[in-house]
């Protein structure tokens, strides 16, 4: 409805129907202009048809050509002769049954790939690769990702975890030199050939890709997936859109990209900037066998039981997405990881618009990606469905071990990660994340917290852990900053000064009374870490502000090169297959 204030802005009185009439007629005029061949040649020969898309549930949604429709009942126009891709989005606690035709239709469904179940797959990483990098990228040839006979005689052979880290390359099976520290090249290229005798019984290849900072995946010259970078207009000097620290994505490669005989998988990995200290590619895969064209599977009751329904529109089309309540719902493995109810301007974390709003960090504590869409965030125990995280956005997808910030600014129109409320900063405040299962709503995770000082946060001492602590300025003068979007630190305000809790240790013999040995301490060059009767899995190194400097994942004993670190206080967390040890270290 057009308000009186809006009309008055344009010089219309409340009784004047001119503005309202203009608004009502405008869509029809636009449609007519679009159908003129000189305006949109691709619509030549098309005509307007009526389109109605609905759900049998008010919470059910439909995505049309990749866009989420705002309501469960949509009526509008479409163009005949054009393809329409629909996707039914089931609310939590319900499953999709099928697409029901509400009347006679001259529209024809198209075959699409059967959705691939990626849960429980076993991945291998035995593939061999050829790797290449230079200051100007791939040079004059653009066929590196297409031509199976492309000359790679000057390329480096590689396998497993490939890339580099300026601080420590021990985690890499293949180390690739790409420029020098502070002046790294933008791109590293990877190719791998493989033979398939027949693709008839292959449904897809599912790739699990760990990368840093972005990648584009090609199969036989076709772009299958681009992450954190636009695949259009790529060259060897283009950097990633932002940084991504060892992110992992599951990518389904449908059988239509494969062929009998020799196939080519190619990946280009791009840095965030020349100063970025590391780059990584770890490509794992699993072949899924089965039929490739079971899409739009119909039944006597439904046009299709596939949630993804592709149709060539011939005339008026009216469809309903039908959902059914499920008996049991599996809760996602997520945690409320950190809360900041006192984010101050110019000091704390800022959102994408530069606003310093309070925030809640959600952590994926599982082994698979999770989409937060459909979950509810609330600051009131009695209002469990206060804000629903919306469907249809990539930002709501959290990779395994990843984090996402939801800004509590009461401005949900700003985007999917902006909640419709603000956090309270008083004793007994509350934040919860809930899910619906049919008619029931259950708590996934919640926490009650007390007031904090400006720019302090309240969070789990370790990501996904059990102990809640305060991150901020300590009474002894130490500062352990909040960690929005990155790993929580084990260094918190009840930590002691390093000098008061260590005695000087020169060698392992002086550590015989303990289960672990960290020596020499103080250290000037190399620090040894050994554990008696257990394997060292990971050693986390923090500075005195609680920021992670490095993670050492060598088995057995570890040696840490301290030569590159300035004098000062450092903290270790030593993870073994038995327990976790903590140690304070002084660098001379």
Summarize the entry for a quick read.
With 588 residues, the protein is mostly beta strands.
Please provide a written account of the structure.
The N terminus is likely disordered. It is built from 2 helices and 41 strands. Strand 26 and strand 27 form a beta hairpin. It starts with a helix and ends with a strand. Helix content is 4%, strand content 40%. It is mostly beta strands and 588 residues long. The strands form 10 sheets. Strands 9-8-14-19-16-17 form a 6-stranded antiparallel sheet, with no helix packed on it. Strands 30-29-24-23-33-34 form a 6-stranded mixed sheet, with no helix packed on it. Among the domains are: 162 residues, Jelly Rolls, CATH 2.60.120; 138 residues, Immunoglobulin-like (Sandwich), CATH 2.60.40; 90 residues, Immunoglobulin-like.
Instruction: Provide the β-strand percentage band.
Output: 35-45%
The whole-angstrom Rg is 28 Å
CATH topology of the domain at 128-289: Jelly Rolls
- Rounded mean pLDDT is 81
Q: Indicate the percent of residues in helices.
A: under 10%
Please, what is the CATH homologous superfamily of the domain at 128-289? Galactose-binding domain-like
* Distance linking N and C termini: 71 Å
* SS field, number of helical segments: 2
Shape assignment = globular
CATH architecture of the domain at 128-289: Sandwich
What topology, given as strand order, has the largest sheet?
9-8-14-19-16-17
Name of the CATH first level of the domain at 128-289 = Mainly Beta
Number of strands: 41
Question: What's the main sheet like?
Answer: 6 strands, antiparallel
Strand-pairing-aware structural class: mainly beta
Low-confidence sequence ranges: 1-15, 292-299, 499-505, 507-513
């Amino acid at each position: 409805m057009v308000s009186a204030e809006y009309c008055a802005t344009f010089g219309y009185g409340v009784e004047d129907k001119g503005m309202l009439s203009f608004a009502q007629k405008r869509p029809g005029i636009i449609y007519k202009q679009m159908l003129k061949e000189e305006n949109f040649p691709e619509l030549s020969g098309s005509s307007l048809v009526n389109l109605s898309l609905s759900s049998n549930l008010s919470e059910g949604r439909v995505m049309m050509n990749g866009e989420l429709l705002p309501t469960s009942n949509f009526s509008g126009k479409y163009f005949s002769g054009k393809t329409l891709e629909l996707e039914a989005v089931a609310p939590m606690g319900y499953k999709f049954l099928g697409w029901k035709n509400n009347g006679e239709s001259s529209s024809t469904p198209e075959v699409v790939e059967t959705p691939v179940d990626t849960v429980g797959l076993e991945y291998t990483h035995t593939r061999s690769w050829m790797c290449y990098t230079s200051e100007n990228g791939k040079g004059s040839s653009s066929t590196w990702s297409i031509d199976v006979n492309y000359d790679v005689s000057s390329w480096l052979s590689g396998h497993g975890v490939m890339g580099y880290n300026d601080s420590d390359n021990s985690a890499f099976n293949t180390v690739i030199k790409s420029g020098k520290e502070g002046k790294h090249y933008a791109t590293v290229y990877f190719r791998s050939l493989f033979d398939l005798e027949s693709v008839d019984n292959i449904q897809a290849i599912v790739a699990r890709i760990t990368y840093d900072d972005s990648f584009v995946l090609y199969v036989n010259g076709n772009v299958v997936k681009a992450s954190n970078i636009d695949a259009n207009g790529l060259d060897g000097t283009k950097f990633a859109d932002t940084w991504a620290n060892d992110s992992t994505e599951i990518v389904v490669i449908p059988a239509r990209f494969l062929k009998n005989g020799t196939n080519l998988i190619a990946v280009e990995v791009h840095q965030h900037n020349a100063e970025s200290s590391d780059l990584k590619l770890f490509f794992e895969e699993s072949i899924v066998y089965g039929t490739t064209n079971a899409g739009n599977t119909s039944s006597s009751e439904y046009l299709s039981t596939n949630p993804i329904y592709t149709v060539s529109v011939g005339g008026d089309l009216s469809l309903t997405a039908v959902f059914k309540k499920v008996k049991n719902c599996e809760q996602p493995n997520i945690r409320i990881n950190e809360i900041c109810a006192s984010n101050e301007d110019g000091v704390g974390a800022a959102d994408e618009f530069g606003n310093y709003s309070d925030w809640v960090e959600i952590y994926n504590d599982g082994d698979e990606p999770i989409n937060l869409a459909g979950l509810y965030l609330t600051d009131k125990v009695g209002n469990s469905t206060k804000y629903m995280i919306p469907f249809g956005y990539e930002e709501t997808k959290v990779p395994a071990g990843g984090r996402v910030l939801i800004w509590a600014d009461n401005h949900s129109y700003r985007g999917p990660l902006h909640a419709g409320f603000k956090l309270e900063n008083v004793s007994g405040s509350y934040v919860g994340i809930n899910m619906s299962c049919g008619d029931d709503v259950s708590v996934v995770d919640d926490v009650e917290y007390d007031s904090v000082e400006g720019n302090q946060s309240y969070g789990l001492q370790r990501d996904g852990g059990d102990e809640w602590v305060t991150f901020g300025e300590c009474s002894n003068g130490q500062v352990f900053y909040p960690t929005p979007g990155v790993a929580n630190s084990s260094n918190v305000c009840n930590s002691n000064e390093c000098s008061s809790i260590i005695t000087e240790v020169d060698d392992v013999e002086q550590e015989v009374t303990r289960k672990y040995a960290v020596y020499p301490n103080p250290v000037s060059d190399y620090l040894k870490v050994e554990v008696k009767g257990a394997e060292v899995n990971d050693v986390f190194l923090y500075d005195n502000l609680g920021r992670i400097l490095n993670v050492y994942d060598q088995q057995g004993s570890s040696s840490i090169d301290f030569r590159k670190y300035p004098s000062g206080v450092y903290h270790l967390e030593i993870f073994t297959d038995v327990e976790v040890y903590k140690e304070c270290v002084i660098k001379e």
